[in-house]
Design brief:
The complex is a heterodimer of chains A (322) and B (367).
Chain A lengths: L2 H30 L7 H19 L2 H25 L4 H24 L22 H4 L5 H9 L4 H19 L1 H11 L1 H6 L4 H27 L11 H11 L4 H19 L1 H8 L5 H16 L21
Chain B lengths: L5 H26 L4 H13 L2 H26 L7 H18 L5 H30 L3 H23 L28 H4 L9 H18 L1 H11 L1 H6 L4 H28 L10 H11 L4 H24 L6 H15 L1 H23 L1
Classes of the chains: A mainly alpha (322), B mainly alpha (367).
Chain lengths: 322, 367
C-alpha cells in the first residue's frame, strides 16, 4: 500500500468517524447522568431526515442543521419523559423510539417529496461543503506532512471540526465545571445529589437535552455533509456502533475520540477490501470487516480488552424518598 | 398511588396503551395528509376481509408467536433479549442446512429435523451473550444487539460465498428438496374448507400454538419455570433460595434463542422454501412489542401476535393500495412498544387516578 492510498483511507476514516464521534459524545452525556440511551440511532435518523428535508426546501445547510437538532431534541424529550418523568424502562424506551424514527422518517419524507422516502439530492449551499484549512495549499508540497495535512486534516466540512472540538469541550465540561461534576454524580449516586439540594430530574433532563443536540448534529452531518440528502435507514446502525465506541472508551471523552476513529477506520477499510487483501495477503471477506466493530465491542464487554464499568446508577429510575 | 384491581392490570392497561398508540398513529396519518378511517378500512379488508387475507395474517402471527415467546421467557428471567432477530436469522441457517443436507423422504421427518436445527442454531447464537452476562456481567442488551449485526454480516457471507449455488446471481441458498416442503393450511384437512386458495400460513401455526402451551406449562408448572421467575423477580432472593444464577441465565437465554430460531420453520421452510437474505424481516424485533403487549404471558402473546399479524398484513395492503408507505407499520410497532413498555407507568397513573376517584365517590355515597 502506498502513501497516497493510506492518506485516502485516513481521509475516509475521519469522514466516517465524525457521526460516530458526535453520537458517542451524545451518549456519553446521557449515560454519565445515569440514563441509558440505545435510541441514539433513532435520534440521528430523525435529525438526518429533518436536516435533509429542510435543507432541500430552504437551500440552506444551516437551516437544515437547526431542523435536525430540533427533530433530535423532540426524540430526546420523549426519551426523557418516558425514562425520567414516568420512570419507564430506559432500554425499552430507546428501542421504541428507534422504531418510531425508522418508520416516521420515511413517512414524512414520502409525504413531502414523494421520492420513495428519500429527500431530494442537495447541491451548493444546501450542503456543508469542504473547507480548506489555512496554509493547506501552501504546505501541500512539503514532503510527508504536507499531503497529510492537505488530504487528511484539511478539506472536510465544518461539522467535522466541530465534532473534533466537542471532544476537549466535553472533557472540560465534565471534569472541570460544577455542572459536569454534578452530572457525573447523578449517574453514580443520584441520592447524594438530591441530598445536596440539586435537582436530579433537572440534571438528567439537561444531559438528555445535550444528547439530543449532539445526535442532531450527527444526523444533520449524515444528510447534508457526508451524503447529499436523506435516504431510508441511512444511519445503518451507526447509533449502535457509537454506543459500542462509548463502552470501548469506558465513558471517557478523549478515549471516545480514539474509539470512534478506530471504528471509522474499520468502516473505511470495509470500503476498500482490495487494500486489505494486499496488506494481509489473504482474502478477507468484506462482511468480516463490517462485523469487526461489533466483535470488538463484545470482546471489550467480555472484559478481555480491559474492563468496562458503566456509571453505577445507569438505567435505574430515581425515586425520591418520601 | 392506588393499586389497580387485577382485571384492570391484565386487561385495561394493555388496552388503553393500545388506544393511545392508535390515537397517535391516526394523528401521524392526518399529519401526512391521509385519512385514518380509510387506512383502517383498507387494513381490516386486506387482513381480515378474506380467507386469503387471514392466510397472511396467520402466517405473520405464527412468526410473532415464536419471537414473542422468546422475549417473554427472557423477560421472566429479568433479561431483555433484543437479539431475537439475529437468533431467528441463525435459526434460518439451521433450517436451511438441515433441509439441504438430505433428500428428505417425507415432510414430517424433515420438519422434526429442521425444528431441531432451527432451535439448536438459535440457542447457540444466544449462548455467547448468555454466558457473558452470567459469567462476566456483560450487559445482555448490548451484546445481543451486537450479535444481531454480527449475525447479519455472517449471513451475508454464508449466502454469498457458501450456500449460493454456482451460477446463481441473488444471494440465496438453493431451493429445498420436495420432501422438505411443509403443507400450507390449504393442504390440511378441515383447514382446507376455509382456505381454498394457496396461503402462506402453514402447519407451523399449530406448532407455535403448542409451544405457547408448553412455555406456559414450563413457566408456571415446573421447577425450572419457578426458578426462572424467582430469579427474574429478585436475584438476591433467588440466590439465597439456592438457585444458581449462572445456570438460570444461560438456560433462560437458550430457551429464548431456541424459540426465536424456531420461527424460521415458518418463513424459511414453510414459505420461502430456501434461505434468503434477511429472512426474518424484523420479526425478531416485533417479538419485543408482542411480549410487552401480551403482558409476558403466553396466552397474551398469542393474542398480541394475532394483532401484530393483522397490523403487518394490513400494513402491507396499505403499501399496495394506498399512498401510505409500508413503514407505517413500524411506526405503530414503535408506538405500541413505547406505550406498553416505556410509558406503562403513565397509563397506570392515569388509571389509578380514575379508580381512586371512583372509590372515593363510592365511599362518599355509603357514608
Amino acid at each position: 500500500m502506498d502513501y497516497a492510498t493510506l492518506l485516502q483511507i485516513l481521509d475516509t476514516t475521519l469522514r466516517l468517524a465524525t457521526p460516530l464521534l458526535l453520537a458517542c459524545l451524545a451518549g456519553l452525556y446521557s449515560e454519565r447522568a445515569g440514563i441509558f440511551d440505545i435510541g441514539l440511532e433513532g435520534k440521528m435518523l430523525a435529525a438526518a431526515m429533518s436536516a435533509g428535508a429542510v435543507a432541500a426546501l430552504t437551500g440552506s445547510a444551516w437551516a437544515g442543521l437547526l431542523a435536525g437538532i430540533g427533530a433530535s431534541m423532540i426524540f430526546a424529550a420523549l426519551h426523557g419523559i418516558a425514562s425520567i418523568t414516568f420512570r419507564g424502562n430506559q432500554l425499552i424506551s430507546g428501542v421504541a423510539l428507534n422504531f418510531l424514527a425508522s418508520g416516521i422518517t420515511v413517512l414524512i419524507a414520502q409525504a413531502l417529496f414523494a421520492q420513495g422516502g428519500r429527500t431530494p439530492p442537495l447541491t451548493g449551499d444546501a450542503r456543508f461543503n469542504p473547507v480548506t484549512l489555512p496554509g493547506a495549499e501552501a504546505l501541500r508540497d512539503v514532503p510527508v506532512i504536507g499531503p497529510l495535512y492537505y488530504e487528511v486534516i484539511s478539506g472536510h466540512s465544518v461539522l467535522v471540526y466541530l465534532a473534533l472540538l466537542a471532544v476537549p469541550l466535553t472533557w472540560w465540561v465534565l471534569f472541570r465545571t460544577r455542572f459536569g461534576l454534578r452530572l457525573r454524580a447523578v449517574g453514580e449516586n443520584p441520592a447524594a445529589v438530591d441530598t445536596a439540594g440539586v435537582s436530579v430530574v433537572g440534571l438528567r433532563f439537561a444531559a438528555v437535552g445535550i444528547t439530543g443536540i449532539l445526535c442532531g448534529i450527527a444526523g444533520a452531518y449524515m444528510a447534508t455533509a457526508l451524503q447529499a440528502g436523506f435516504g431510508r435507514e441511512m444511519t445503518a446502525g451507526r447509533g449502535y456502533i457509537a454506543l459500542a465506541a462509548l463502552i470501548f472508551a469506558k465513558w471517557r471523552p478523549v478515549a471516545a475520540l480514539w474509539a470512534c476513529l478506530l471504528f471509522g477506520f474499520f468502516q473505511a477499510l470495509a470500503l476498500r477490501p482490495d487494500v486489505v487483501e494486499a496488506v494481509v495477503q489473504v482474502k478477507v471477506p468484506v462482511p468480516l470487516l463490517d462485523a469487526l466493530p461489533y466483535i470488538l465491542t463484545v470482546l471489550v464487554l467480555a472484559g478481555f480488552v480491559g474492563k468496562a464499568i458503566p456509571p453505577r446508577a445507569g438505567g435505574e429510575p430515581y425515586v425520591k424518598e418520601r | 398511588m392506588d393499586r389497580l384491581p387485577r382485571w384492570a392490570d391484565v386487561v385495561l392497561v394493555p388496552l388503553i396503551s393500545l388506544v393511545f398508540a392508535a390515537i397517535i398513529s391516526a394523528l401521524v396519518l392526518l399529519v401526512i395528509g391521509q385519512s385514518p378511517v380509510e387506512a383502517f378500512k383498507v387494513m381490516v379488508d386486506g387482513a381480515l376481509g378474506s380467507a386469503y387475507g387471514w392466510g397472511y395474517t396467520l402466517y405473520y402471527a405464527t412468526s410473532f408467536i415464536f419471537t414473542g415467546l422468546a422475549v417473554t421467557v427472557a423477560f421472566h428471567a429479568g433479561l431483555f433479549n433484543i437479539g431475537g432477530e439475529g437468533q431467528a436469522q441463525l435459526g434460518g441457517l439451521g433450517v436451511a442446512l438441515v433441509c439441504l443436507s438430505l433428500p428428505w423422504p417425507h415432510w414430517t421427518i424433515a420438519l422434526a429435523a429442521a425444528t431441531a436445527g432451527a432451535a439448536l442454531f438459535g440457542a447457540a447464537w444466544a449462548l455467547i451473550p448468555a454466558y457473558l452476562q452470567a459469567k462476566r456481567g456483560s450487559h445482555i442488551v448490548i451484546t445481543t444487539i451486537m450479535f444481531n449485526y454480527i449475525a447479519a454480516a455472517l449471513m451475508v457471507y454464508v449466502l454469498v460465498d457458501v450456500l449460493r449455488p454456482v451460477g446463481q446471481m441473488d444471494p440465496a441458498s438453493a431451493r429445498f428438496p420436495e420432501g422438505a416442503q411443509l403443507p400450507a393450511l390449504n393442504d390440511l384437512p378441515l383447514f382446507n374448507l376455509i382456505f381454498q386458495k394457496p396461503v402462506p400460513a402453514n402447519i407451523t401455526l399449530l406448532i407455535a400454538l403448542v409451544m405457547a402451551v408448553v412455555i406456559w406449562a414450563m413457566l408456571w408448572r415446573t421447577r425450572l419455570g419457578y426458578q426462572i421467575r424467582a430469579f427474574g423477580k429478585s436475584e438476591a432472593a433467588a440466590k439465597y433460595a439456592g438457585i444458581n444464577p449462572v445456570r438460570i441465565t444461560i438456560i433462560a437465554m437458550l430457551i429464548s434463542g431456541a424459540l426465536a430460531g424456531m420461527m424460521s420453520i415458518n418463513n424459511v421452510m414453510g414459505e420461502a422454501e430456501r434461505l434468503l437474505q434477511n429472512s426474518s424481516e424484523g420479526a425478531g424485533f416485533i417479538g419485543i412489542a408482542v411480549a410487552l403487549m401480551g403482558r409476558n404471558h403466553p396466552f397474551g402473546v398469542v393474542l398480541a401476535a394475532l394483532l401484530f399479524g393483522f397490523l403487518y398484513q394490513g400494513g402491507a395492503e396499505l403499501g399496495l393500495w394506498t399512498s401510505i408507505p409500508i413503514e407505517m407499520r413500524i411506526v405503530v410497532q414503535g408506538l405500541v412498544i413505547l406505550f406498553t413498555g416505556a410509558l406503562d407507568m403513565m397509563v397506570r397513573m392515569i388509571l389509578g387516578r380514575i379508580f381512586g376517584m371512583v372509590r372515593s365517590a363510592r365511599a362518599m355515597r355509603t357514608a
